[in-house]
Amino acid sequence: MDxxxxxxxxxxxxxxxxxxxxGHGTGTFDANTDGADTIRSSHITFxxxxxxxxxxxxSMKAHSTDITIKNCKFHNGLGIAMGSIGHYxxxxxxxxxxxxxxxxxxxxxxxxxxxxWTADQNGYxxxxxxxxxxxxxxxxxxYLTTTCFRGAAFxxxxxxxxxxxxxxxxCTNSEFQVRNMEIDGLYGDSKSARVASLQCSAVxxxxxxxxxxxxxxxxxxxxxxxxxxxxxxxxxxxxxxxxPCVGGSATGEC
Length: 254
Hints:
Elements: E1 13-22, E2 37-47, E3 50-52, E4 58-60, E5 64-75, E6 80-85, E7 92-106, E8 112-116, E9 133-149, E10 154-157, E11 175-190, E12 194-199, E13 206-218, E14 226-230, E15 232-233
Parallel strand pairs: 1-2, 2-4, 2-5, 3-5, 4-6, 5-7, 6-8, 7-9, 8-10, 9-11, 10-12, 11-13, 12-14, 13-15
């Protein structure tokens, strides 16, 4: 059955096991809308989706496991997101085994980004929070193409900052770890020279981060070659060229 959409804050809220969604519907999205979010869900497949929006193209949240994204095309949004996660003080949450294959991006901010909360609690969800525990692991993206990224292709921010949230928070003290992420194959052009901006926690650094077969260039033909790293332990198949901006962000970079 085709799925149609109304212009609301959330088009779909998906939960459950062994769910497959083929994208054949039509409709319009408000700019500040995710394509779809998963939470406490496993064995979800997104196949053949085309999303026009202004927020996360797709977002995997707490306890999303075994998620497959394939043959999709994303326009104008922020890209595929992990999180935000770690909102809730002392709560243990995970994201595990997320794969994306054969994805096309048009004018998105990122291809893929991760946003976790700090160890400090500043206010309460939805716009505030923090102090959560856990990890995101087993994320693999292959065969990605792009027309005109607006920011770093890949980003990690461990200090989300949303409108109306109190306090500032420590940008590098998150106790939520990012590990086992692999990017294999990204080609196309970008407005940004940053291939990656990885602002990880000093308490639990990012580990086992691999990027290989990246052919990203600026619209003038110059290679995009910046890999900005903060608290990355033993990066694989790429060399860090500098440090990222350290600060709060709702979209993966300061």
